[in-house]
């Protein structure tokens, strides 16, 4: 029987299956060599096919995650959101801000420059204005769909690289302004994009640019181009030319700096350049463009019922630090309750105005600031008249309460503070004689009554304002740096920490408040308030509470416990401040001033000498340029300044020089008398002396007894206790017994020596080294 073996059943030793391929040598075209196979036996073709499969799947996932799902979400968002109308937005703009005194009584209303405005139609806004804004803010406006992909990528790149510039279109800016939401969140941005897109699907481009121009902020409190045209040019918007339109368009980016000439000029040029790039103006128009004439800020709105201008400015600056910036200021229907005491403000305004009424020198200016040491709140703020006449036109005046000036000898309080921090005290002795030479420089005292013996205590030197003592103290013991530090610890705010004052520690000029050291009256009031508050420093502020149109609290100042100013220990800071008060107490009486009845007070006068220029009359050599009186009671600190715009040779009656005690001093005293009248009596806390406990016996050749204290000056006599940069003059007497306020610690060993300054003619005064 013959058996047939099926071919399928046959298996030889190397059989691998139907797809078996002999692994023996092959020609290149017959198959793949082993080295082309991966570990899983896949051929290059198989591997390529797998790679594309992975790529396709990733692409599908990418499209799903970043295109399909977002597209679906965008469509859903699109139908859910609404685009706010300009009419509804306008209801929340251009609202007056109501100001109240601390007791809740009305102070006035700050009305926006443009007043109540109407919503303009596309036909009422000229093309030149629309073109200026489109070119400056969104050159792709005519073609984009509400957002610009290129702009978004550019904005993202700028954020990553730290550069300026965003990618918002005009539509997006409108939505951002309309919703008053600028939170840096993806949710806000996503919703903004959907609304912008919907706006462009719903409205014509002419309607969109008109809506934008009706609500955007331009500065000067003007929302909408109609209000801005009035606020900047007193023109109807239809009458604006291309240069005026360019300025308004440029200011959209920086409305809060509209009064800064450099910023305004720069933004104007940017707008014109972009108008040229977009062919909205010709090259000839660009070349011939002249910066438009802008009306003065003071003429841009009616201030008849507004609060005192300089208080208004300080309040706005403070609100900006708490989230209510210039862009939102007129949009919330806010009511601002200030720290200003109505009675104190009225007294300050009256005494400051009266102080200059009968003066023969019409260049004299003044300011007065009062601060509550217990809270840091400003009780009264007078920076001079808000408006001045210049060539028959009203112009805004400078706020002299916030303008840095040489403080003169009122700086000596900080010299002493630095000295006390070293552990040395007011009974340490220095050579207080006149005409001492330091490193080749001669330092003089202000006159016979400002000098004392070769063994002069610091307390006596402070009372007499002996320049040689304090210059020696700062040059050879404390050094300038710690004096500047003490001033800042007390509350002086320099440009480095958000203020305007300048403190120069380059040399010992700081000891006498000269050179490049310049401090604002507001800072001096705050710094001396720290002494009044037993060494506790509290930041100066103007705002108690802000409520919006719905009576909701938008901001409320919290009571400040303050911080120890001169030492980490509150007890040590109090001791230092108390020792400063001990030294400043006798200065008041010695300067022919008096404390309010029933109240203890302390303070320091200050005068800065005028630098004589060629061609000036002979009397200018004895003239002064800045005068001060800064002092306090336990409940109020007051800085009074009288000077001029720059270094001027000021005079009183005839050509007599003015001093800290002649105009500023009486102004300070009258304010305290008026403000504290009827208030409970107050005394300073007593503290122990720092350093030497008993002064040595005085050996002053001018000492003598039996003389009566001088009478109040008539405003033209020199001040025997005045400062380090003033000049002497005819002095006919001096106090025999320097006054020590009731309730203060007594002199450690009896009474101080008496000094009877001799009569004499005018001296050359002190000539401190200049920087």
From TrEMBL:
<feature type="region of interest" description="Disordered">
    <location>
        <begin position="694"/>
        <end position="771"/>
    </location>
</feature>
<keyword id="KW-0812">Transmembrane</keyword>
<feature type="compositionally biased region" description="Acidic residues">
    <location>
        <begin position="25"/>
        <end position="35"/>
    </location>
</feature>
<keyword id="KW-0378">Hydrolase</keyword>
<keyword id="KW-0808">Transferase</keyword>
<keyword id="KW-0121">Carboxypeptidase</keyword>
<dbReference type="Pfam" id="PF00912">
    <property type="entry name" value="Transgly"/>
</dbReference>
<dbReference type="InterPro" id="IPR001264">
    <property type="entry name" value="Glyco_trans_51"/>
</dbReference>
<keyword id="KW-0511">Multifunctional enzyme</keyword>
<feature type="region of interest" description="Disordered">
    <location>
        <begin position="1"/>
        <end position="45"/>
    </location>
</feature>
<dbReference type="InterPro" id="IPR023346">
    <property type="entry name" value="Lysozyme-like_dom_sf"/>
</dbReference>
<keyword id="KW-0645">Protease</keyword>
<dbReference type="Pfam" id="PF00905">
    <property type="entry name" value="Transpeptidase"/>
</dbReference>
<feature type="compositionally biased region" description="Basic and acidic residues">
    <location>
        <begin position="1"/>
        <end position="24"/>
    </location>
</feature>
<feature type="compositionally biased region" description="Low complexity">
    <location>
        <begin position="696"/>
        <end position="719"/>
    </location>
</feature>
<feature type="transmembrane region" description="Helical">
    <location>
        <begin position="58"/>
        <end position="81"/>
    </location>
</feature>
<feature type="domain" description="Penicillin-binding protein transpeptidase">
    <location>
        <begin position="368"/>
        <end position="637"/>
    </location>
</feature>
<dbReference type="InterPro" id="IPR050396">
    <property type="entry name" value="Glycosyltr_51/Transpeptidase"/>
</dbReference>
<protein>
    <submittedName>
        <fullName>Transglycosylase domain-containing protein</fullName>
    </submittedName>
</protein>
<keyword id="KW-0328">Glycosyltransferase</keyword>
<dbReference type="InterPro" id="IPR036950">
    <property type="entry name" value="PBP_transglycosylase"/>
</dbReference>
<keyword id="KW-0472">Membrane</keyword>
<feature type="domain" description="Glycosyl transferase family 51">
    <location>
        <begin position="114"/>
        <end position="275"/>
    </location>
</feature>
<dbReference type="InterPro" id="IPR012338">
    <property type="entry name" value="Beta-lactam/transpept-like"/>
</dbReference>
<keyword id="KW-1133">Transmembrane helix</keyword>
<dbReference type="InterPro" id="IPR001460">
    <property type="entry name" value="PCN-bd_Tpept"/>
</dbReference>
């Amino acid at each position: 029987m013959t058996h047939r073996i099926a071919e399928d059943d046959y298996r030889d030793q190397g059989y691998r299956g139907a797809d078996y391929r002999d692994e023996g040598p092959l020609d290149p075209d017959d198959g793949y060599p082993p080295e082309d196979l991966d570990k899983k036996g896949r051929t290059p073709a198989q591997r390529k096919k797998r790679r594309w499969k992975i790529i396709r799947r990733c692409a599908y996932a990418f499209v799903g995650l970043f295109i399909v799902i977002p597209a679906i979400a965008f469509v859903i968002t699109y139908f859910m959101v609404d685009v706010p109308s300009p009419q509804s937005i306008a209801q929340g703009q251009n609202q007056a801000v109501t100001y109240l005194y601390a007791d809740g009584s009305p102070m006035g209303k700050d009305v926006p420059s443009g007043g109540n405005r109407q919503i303009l139609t596309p036909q009422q806004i000229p093309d030149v204005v629309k073109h200026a804004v489109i070119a400056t803010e969104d050159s792709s406006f005519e073609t984009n769909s509400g957002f610009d992909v290129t702009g978004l990528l550019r904005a993202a790149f700028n954020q990553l690289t730290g550069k300026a510039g965003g990618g918002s279109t005009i539509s997006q800016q409108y939505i951002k302004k309309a919703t008053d939401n600028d939170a840096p969140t993806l949710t806000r941005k996503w919703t903004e994009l959907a609304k912008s897109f919907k706006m462009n699907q719903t409205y014509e481009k002419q309607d969109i640019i008109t809506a934008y121009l009706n609500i955007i902020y331009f500065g000067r409190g003007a929302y909408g181009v109609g209000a801005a045209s009035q606020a900047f040019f007193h023109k109807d918007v239809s009458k604006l030319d291309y240069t005026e339109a360019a300025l308004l368009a440029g200011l959209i980016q920086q409305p809060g700096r509209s009064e800064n000439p450099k910023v305004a000029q720069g933004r104007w040029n940017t707008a014109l350049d972009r108008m040229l790039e977009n062919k909205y103006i010709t090259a000839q128009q660009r070349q011939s463009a002249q910066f438009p004439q802008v009306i003065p800020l003071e003429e841009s709105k009616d201030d008849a019922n507004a609060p005192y201008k300089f208080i208004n400015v300080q309040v706005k600056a403070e609100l900006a630090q708490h989230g209510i910036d210039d862009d939102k200021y007129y949009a919330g229907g806010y009511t601002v309750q200030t720290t200003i005491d109505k009675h104190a403000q009225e007294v300050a305004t009256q005494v400051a105005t009266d102080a200059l009424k009968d003066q023969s020198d019409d260049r004299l200016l003044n300011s007065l600031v009062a601060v509550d040491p217990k809270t840091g709140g400003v009780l009264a703020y007078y920076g001079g008249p808000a408006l001045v006449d210049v060539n028959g036109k009203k112009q805004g005046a400078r706020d002299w309460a916030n303008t840095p000036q040489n403080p003169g000898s009122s700086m000596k309080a900080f010299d002493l503070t630095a000295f006390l921090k070293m552990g040395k005290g007011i009974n340490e002795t220095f050579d207080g004689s006149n005409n001492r030479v330091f490193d080749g420089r001669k330092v003089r005292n202000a006159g016979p009554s400002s000098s004392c013996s070769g063994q002069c205590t610091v307390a006596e030197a402070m009372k007499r304002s002996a320049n040689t003592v304090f210059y020696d103290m700062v040059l050879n013991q404390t050094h300038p740096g710690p004096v500047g530090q003490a001033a800042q610890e007390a509350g002086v705010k320099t440009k480095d920490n958000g203020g305007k004052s300048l403190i120069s520690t380059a040399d010992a000029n700081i000891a006498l408040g000269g050179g490049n050291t310049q401090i604002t009256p507001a800072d001096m009031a705050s710094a001396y308030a720290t002494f009044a508050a037993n060494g506790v420093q509290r930041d100066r502020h103007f705002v108690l509470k802000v409520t919006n149109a719905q009576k909701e609290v938008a901001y409320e100042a919290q009571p400040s416990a303050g911080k120890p100013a001169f030492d980490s220990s509150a007890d040590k800071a109090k001791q230092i401040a108390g020792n400063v008060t001990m030294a400043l107490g006798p200065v008041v009486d010695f300067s022919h001033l008096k404390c309010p009845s029933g109240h203890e007070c302390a303070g320091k006068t200050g005068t800065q000498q005028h630098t004589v220029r060629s061609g000036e009359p002979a009397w200018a050599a004895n003239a002064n340029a800045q005068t001060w009186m800064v002092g306090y009671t336990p409940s109020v600190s007051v800085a009074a300044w009288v000077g001029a715009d720059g270094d001027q040779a000021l005079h009183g009656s005839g050509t007599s020089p003015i001093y800290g005690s002649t105009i500023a001093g009486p102004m300070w005293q009258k304010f305290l008398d008026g403000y504290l009248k009827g208030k409970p009596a107050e005394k300073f806390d007593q503290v122990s002396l720092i350093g030497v406990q008993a002064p040595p016996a005085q050996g002053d050749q001018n000492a003598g007894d039996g003389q009566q204290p001088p009478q109040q000056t008539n405003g033209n006599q020199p001040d025997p206790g005045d400062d380090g940069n003033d000049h002497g003059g005819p002095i006919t007497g001096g106090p025999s017994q320097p006054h020590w306020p009731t309730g203060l610690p007594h002199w450690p060993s009896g009474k101080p020596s008496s000094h009877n300054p001799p009569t004499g003619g005018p001296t050359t005064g002190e000539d401190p080294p200049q920087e």
